[in-house]
Specification:
Number of strands: 9
Largest sheet: 8 strands, parallel, barrel
Structural class: alpha/beta
Shape: globular
Number of helices: 11
Strand order of the largest sheet: 1-2-3-4-5-6-7-8
Distance between the termini: 35 Å
Radius of gyration: 17 Å
Helix content: 40-55%
CATH topology: TIM Barrel
CATH architecture: Alpha-Beta Barrel
Amino acid sequence: MLELIECPRDAMQGIKEFIPTQKKIDYINLLIEAGFDTIDFGSFVSPKAIPQMADTAEVLKGLKLNEKTKLLAIIANQRGAQDAAQFDEITYLGYPFSISEEFQKRNTNATLEESLTRVGEIKDIADKAKKELVVYISMAFGNPYGEEWHPDIAIKWVERLFREFGIKILALSDTIGTSSRGSIDQLFNALIPEIPAVNFGAHLHTTPDTWREKVDAAYQAGCRRFDGALKGYGGCPMAKDDLTGNMPMEKMLGYFDERKVKTGVDSDIVNKALLAAAEVFPL
């Protein structure tokens, strides 16, 4: 079954000008109404680190939830996990685990081994609160810091996260937009048959001319969980490329529609959300 995760949090978090809370609420409510499987709606992190997400708890209060769409909140440490775990409305806690030591330090102020220990502690918090932990494998497809990178490194960490902590949802993340059809095919084809108990997701960043080959490579390799953001808003500042952004959700919807793959998403509401996005995101 296909799972589409719309990520307004990822689209908004890098915008310097604060987006009014009510505007966020109205936009996310449209995405919920559209029928996406999951909405990555906000994050419980330091407001000093990501000021745009300082109102996540307030946004949550204004959301009109239904029985279909689930909510995911990003956290970076145990404190964030505890904060997010208090809310019954949240189903998933998302933790970014980078296989780049340098990026892990920059992103969560922890070494790889410290981050691994943190995963275990966050998993305990999630389990007690009956939440599911989603771990994002950041830098899964490349490394901008000159550190050693190879698909086998990503595979090693994925195997540890599953075998040591029982993580059942792992999203391979193309943090800087360097993935290719070949690298996507290689990683998913190596992991999906090897660890069938894990639901492997694709959180891919892309340039406007490479989105289709990336989605197709992941889908053909057996991936059925895809992250995206309408119009491809957001992305990673470290990509150092203005054209690199999130996977455009509307294009993924078109891809799956062409292949007659049911998404469960209402295209009319998506069109309304696309129009609303012009008001939410500054050009």
